[in-house]
Amino acid sequence: MPTITTHDEPTGDGLTTLKWGLWLTPFPKTVGEARRQLRSILACWLVPEEAVDTAVLIASELVTNAIRHCSNDHLVHLQVCDDGAQLLLEVSDPSRNPPRPVVAPHLAESGRGLFLVRAAASGFGARHRDPVGKTVWATVPRSAALL
Fold it and tell me: What is the pTM of this model?
């Protein structure tokens, strides 16, 4: 069962960054739950529908990759931050292996996720977490349209 955290954080410039997080069990069925929860919170934050669609696509791909590449006894964390100009999506998992795009065979039903993320996001990267794991992130402008 997912655990949700949410809060507002002052940025020091009179603006507020909205943050929301969701802990997920590493099973494929939780990807759909992550999509539903993310769509709901972004609608509450009045994010334009085009940016919501892009963010949900990206989060779905990143969560799927995290779940696919971590063991079943560790949780995956999805976090989104909205600073009013862009959304920052972060997915953390216990694996230290960086994400690597692969060239999927023409008729393959999977293997194109990171290419989709890179095409849809305005920024993309990964960083190690101490003491273990990594966070893969992507940014989406609030005015972004799905490619």
Answer: 0.82
